[in-house]
Amino acid sequence: MNAPAAPARLGHDRPLRVAIIGNPNTGKTTLFNALTGLRQRVGNFAGVTVERVEGAFTLGDGRRVTILDLPGSYSLTAGSPDEQIALEVLLKRDASHWDPDVVLVVVDAVHLDRNLFLASQVCELGLPVVIALNQIDVAESQGIAIDIPELIHELGVPVIPTVASRGEGLDPLRNACFTAAALPAPTPRFAIDASAETSLARHKWIGEVIARTVTRRARSLDTPSDTIDAIALHRVGGPLLFLVIMALVFQAVFSWAAPLQDAIESLVLTVGSRVGDVLPEGDLRSLVVDGVFAGVGSVLVFLPQIAILFGFIGILEQSGYMARAAFLMDGLMRRVGLHGKSFIPMLSGYACAVPGIMATRTIEDPKDRLATIMVVPLMSCSARLPVYTLLIGTFIPALPLIPGLDLQGATMLLMYLLGTVTALAIAALFRKTLLRGPVRPMILELPPYRWPAPKSLMVSVWQRCQVFLRRAGTVILSLSIVLWALATYPRAPEDATRTAEQQQEAQLAHSVLGRFGKAIEPAVAPLGYDWKIGVSIVASFAAREVFVSTMGTIYGVGGEDDAALADRLRAETDASGAPVYTPLIAVGLMVFYVYALMCMSTIAVTVREAGGGRIGWRWATIQFVYMLVLAYGAAWLVLVIGRALGFS
Amino acid sequence: MTLPVASNDPSCHCPLLDTKQGSESTVVAIACGESEACRLRALGLYEGATVSVIGKRHCLLVDVSGTRLALGSDLATGITVQPRAASAP
Ligand SMILES: Nc1nc2c(ncn2[C@@H]2O[C@H](COP(=O)(O)OP(=O)(O)OP(=O)(O)O)[C@@H](O)[C@H]2O)c(=O)[nH]1
Ligand SMILES: [Mg+2]
User: How confident is the model at residue A558 (pLDDT cuts 50, 70, 90)?
Assistant: First the structure.
């Protein structure tokens, strides 16, 4: 297929603009990735993409295309915030004036009738249209045969069969975009409005088109997905399975990572001491060994856990289980005044609150959405993982409970559950006070189950690891250096009568960090913490992992040997010789971290997604303050109740 | 809003919520909020479409031309259908 003079018409300086639209979960992002070589997130549920993402590719002959991936949409008249984004680009009302030359409609060949509803609406916008008939492989396997020439004839626009996940049909698609740009826009058949009459007329026309173009084996009502759903959505079995999956995930995160973690830990220690050996004794050596290696190294240790967590989240997203989880939770969510769909952003919050808050864009009702935004940061994100792991690994014994779950894994699960249950309770509170209103009825598409593609799973895990490493190399590294400096200067006078250990303690107490710590100690003393924990908490408001790196630095500066951080924490005693860290203190600290909002990016996203400007800041402030109060109050309660029960 | 669909015996009409699991029926009318109705029609659940109930939990699990949908029971009460079996003499 050769494209005629399309580039000439557009001018050589301006690339062709193609906007991708289609029903949710049809493979738009998969196609976008295949065309551009980018790695945007793909998942098997409606509402994975909630932002516009721009990419580009160049044809062999030098013609350039910029292409826009958009959130999925069922029609041009429905109205959740993510669908609005797609609509604005198509109606050329987009704030950045990205007016498409061609609209590429990605259509799911298996559900052609439903997909043609949106496709036919797009054909009425007065823009050139190309249709990618995607997932042809699935259609074929289900005995669905589509007469493509006849479909082109019926629709009056080019139709290209594709299998986006295997990169099939891309070249004809690229060429078709150029060809279409030179063709006149298809002639409208109906008006685009939300009226029932128009919808019915459209469906009637679609029915006729389908009758002329699609032949299929008799459809059985019992697909493999239904067989799985008989268990996964069972009244009793469903929630049980959900809990088992969650327990498995947290146990795996905890125990599978351990050997790798030990390996990284000893590597960091060895390299650290080797480097220390070649450096001359003095401040530079202390900076490298205690600041960089002890600080950043103590965080790097958690890379395997991050990878395992994101691996599991990837499997949940790509298999199609996310929508089932939303379905299962709908009853509970409704009771607290949220929509079942709100559970998908909450689950994404286990990875990171930022995409979780972004994912609320799929929620239509503004109050529902705002209530969800307010509680997503209560879901324990991956940045809390290093804190939990350090404290659990150090202070909670690995007593076996039931096969596959020990006390450490169970404590981890408990922390995640605590965050989740509190999120639901707080949502209920918001829905009864500031955000009162009715709950919208549930309408949720359950996609067929799919095997997660190992390659895209690896890519998403690797991407998350890169983010983590980048954080370690930037925020955490610079904070470690700053904290090292604060812990090292001003120098305490040498006193020959003191032992080396006492001298180190005196140095810490004499430093800026020590004085600051002593000043804030009264604020954390009611929670049972000493100034070192206080300082680490304050530092971790920049990023939660910094708690671990700060502890690493403080104990690096204060300690002599190369012992791992966990051993130093266990050995730490106060003036009277009693241990500073007891299991009770550790649990209290974890509870503090479950609740406290210590993440600049989350605050920024809340400001933007809650309405921006003054309104956005108001909600972000409410969120920050209520979470801080909750964190402090709960940590205090843990200590008081724990002591009353006789724990130390 | 009720739109005329085929000639049906209104005495057989019932809410979708009350149909039997595994049964097929034809949608007669959709009574709910405008935006929900609009969304349902875009999903293929329009007046005249065939729906089958696959499962009943706290909400309804239905099949609409190959798409699995979960519908809140409040919505399913507002959708009036004509069961297929009932239309046979
Ligand atoms: N078998 C098969 N699976 C595909 C094909 N294209 C995409 N998929 C799968 O379909 C699912 C959805 O893909 P996405 O690219 O995330 O879909 P999307 O249209 O961007 O979805 P939203 O962003 O939610 O609107 C993923 O599980 C893909 O692996 C295809 O051609 N064949
Ligand atoms: Mg997408």
Answer: low
* Domain ranges within chain A, ordered by starting residue: 16-216, 221-648
| Count of domains observed in chain B | 1
Q: Pick A114's closest partner by Cβ from B54, B61, B67.
A: B67
Distance in angstroms (rounded) separating the CA atoms of residues A53 and A98: 12
Beta bridge partners of A161: A133
What whole-number distance in Å separates Cα of residue A632 and Cα of residue A341? 31
How far CA A575 is from CA of A502, A554, A583, in Å, comes to 11, 17, 19
Which structure tokens are listed for A472? Answer: 């370690």
Handedness of CA B49, B55, B56, B58 (dihedral sign): negative
Domain contains B88: no
Residue of chain B whose alpha carbon sits nearest to that of A229: B55
DSSP A566-631: HHHHHH-B-TTS-BS--HHHHHHHHHHHHH---BHHHHHHHHHHTTSHHHHHHHHHHHHHHHHHHH
Angle of CA points A26, A125, B3, to nearest 5°: 80
* Cα torsion A501, A396, A408, A414: sign: negative
The set of residues, in sequence order, having a beta carbon less than 8 Å from that of A469 and lying 6+ positions away, is A300, A303
Q: Which domain holds residue B48?
A: 14-83
For chain A, give the mean pLDDT.
89
Contacts of A273 (CB under 8 A, 6+ apart): A289, A562
- Ligand 1 atom closest to Cα of A135? 31
pLDDT tens for each residue of A42-58: 999 999 999 999 999 99
CATH level 3 topology of A16-216: Rossmann fold (3.40.50)
d(CA A339, CA A327): 10
* CB-based contacts of A258, cutoff 8 Å, min separation 6: none
pLDDT digits (tens, 9 = 90+) for A21-38: 999 999 999 999 999 999
Tell me the two tokens of residue B47: 């007046």
**Which residue of chain B is at minimal alpha-carbon distance from A139?**
B66
Nearest to A28 by CA among A103, A120, A84: A103
How many CB pairs lie under 8 A apart between chains A and B? Answer: 121
In contact, B65 and A111? CB cutoff 8 Å: yes
Residue B49 lies in a domain: yes
Q: Angle at CA A29, nearest 5°, toward A23 and A33?
A: 155
Residues paired with B28 in a beta bridge:
none
Residues of A in contact with B3 (CB under 8 A): 196-197, 200
Domain membership flag for residue B89: no
CATH of the domain at B27: 2.30.30.90
Read off the amino acid at residue A310: F
Distance CA A155, CA A521 (A): 72
Q: Residue A8: pLDDT band by 50, 70, 90 thresholds?
A: very low
